[in-house]
Amino acid sequence: MRLRRILAAGIATAALAGLGLTGAVTATAAPAQGAPSYVTPSQCKQGGGTPAINEAGNYCKGGTHNGEQVD
Fold it and tell me: Cα(33)–Cα(39) distance, rounded to whole angstroms?
């Protein structure tokens, strides 16, 4: 009888741990699929970049916002 309780407790712990890991993976994957990042031309300049507004895509070149789209 005691062995059954220990075994049941071990199975329940493993099941809950699996659910916890699944939730953690889902929580870390959500921000990676977020909306694209946009910066203003002034934010691009403040970050040390140059807004390339006339080029295709309107991206910030260089600085901390390098590659982000200028809105």
Answer: 18
Q: Each residue of 32-69: b (16+ CB within 10 Å) or e?
A: eeeeeeebebebbeeeebebbeeeeeebbeebebeebe
Alpha-carbon distance of 66 to 35, in angstroms, equals: 17
Is the pTM higher than 0.90? The answer reads no
Q: Which residues pair with 38 in a beta bridge?
A: 69
pLDDT at residue number 53: 79
User: How many angstroms from the chain centroid is the CA of residue 33?
Assistant: 6
